[in-house]
Amino acid sequence: MATESTNTAATETKGNGKMIAYVLIAVAAVLFVLAYADGYDSLSIHPMDQFEVSPLFGGDTVHWYTPTNATLWMGLAIAAIAALMVMGTKGRAVIPSRSQSMAELAYGFIRKMVEDVAGKDALPYFPYIFTAFLFILFANFLALIPTSFSPTSHIAVTVILALTVFLSVTVIGFVKNGAGFLSLFWVSSAPLPLRPILAVIEVISYCVRPVSHSVRLAGAVMAGHAVLKVFAGFAGALGLAGIAPVFGVIAIYGLEVLVAAIQAYVFTILTCVYLKDALHPHH
Amino acid sequence: MADDATTGAAAGGEAGIPQLDFATFPNQIFWLVVALVAIYFILSRVALPRIASVLAERQGTLTNDLAAAEDLKRQAVEAEEAYNKALADARAEAAKIAEETRAGIQAQLNEAIAHADAEIAAKSAESEARIAEIRAGALQSIEDVARDVAADVVNAVAPGQSVDADALAAAVSERVKG
Fold this sequence. Notes:
Order of helices and strands of chain A: HHHHHHH
Largest sheet of chain B: none
Radius of gyration of chain B: 68 Å
Strand content of chain A: under 5%
Helix content of chain A: 55-70%
Distance between the termini of chain B: 181 Å
Structural class of chain B: mainly alpha
Number of strands of chain B: 0
Strand content of chain B: under 5%
Oligomer: heterodimer
Number of domains of chain B: 1
Helix content of chain B: over 70%
Largest sheet of chain A: none
Shape of chain A: globular
Largest interface: A-B, 53 and 41 residues
Shape of chain B: rod-shaped
Radius of gyration of chain A: 23 Å
Number of helices of chain B: 3
């Protein structure tokens, strides 16, 4: 009897949590509609306006040092990361609080990923990989706040993230293995006549890595946000019938929540895979 | 698109997409590097060592607690063994004491019986000696009485006749021994 009642209580709490998540998504979606539908009296929707980089404190020109909305939202990501990883772990408790537990989960998740995918000798690079993961994750999630700006939707940002990984991994590969790193491109399991051809293909695919690495992230975030805004624009343009696109926005918003986490995960695990190639180039 | 790049951010939304407005690239890249460096230092200087130490401490606590539990269990087993051993010892001791007591009592009993036997033997020997003595005394008394009676009989039969006392005594002794 007692266990049964606690079980039902637990499922109720779980149900409540799910309920709260759904309600949050719905509220955010409606805010999205309100934020972007406002001011559109016709079907002139500008889904890409949300990605514009503009100075925070007036002015037209964007110098390299100008504080822009990109600065603001990257700064908010830093603040959120600091809040979780520093403030959240302030107690240093053996039995962790909720926030400390989340910080430890994130830490353990990425650390285990680095160790499992790239091996124990990749652990010195764990702080940077964790940095990139948290930056992408928090930038993605903060970008889901209506009227926010999404830094990770810009290829300028993702290309730098991907190039940093690409260049570091290449340098690490040559420093750790010397010329042996080139064996990554020499498929020793293939028949000898095929190997030069395969080597060319391997080199090309290696060099294309930063492109796919960066465009995947920027593309996914940009496409999702653009679609959200298109639907929100419909809602504004259709008048009373605009209630229909709202449900579309709710659905896509839920999908975007998943995409935000999955893209951060994909970027990180690809980083680990590339690092594995650099540390252990032999197939 | 090349036009957008030169005219800057304001024109980005009209003709091209803002992502390809290269005029904003230096700005984004600069702030991205700042953000990454900031996060990297926050993590590597503060958060990661702290979490690592907390996890290590928790692991240590767990290991210690498990070891302590193992130790306590071992102590409990030892205590039980000691208890059982003490119990067995006490039983053996009790059995030994009972055996000793029984043997002691048996020895005392044997001694007492032997003593009693000896006393009985001594007493009966003494009694036999006295009986023999009494019997010898009785025979002597009979001879004395017979001699006196014989002397009196002689006096009565032949008064005034002197009787040889020695001859009389010898004759009586002879008859009594018969």
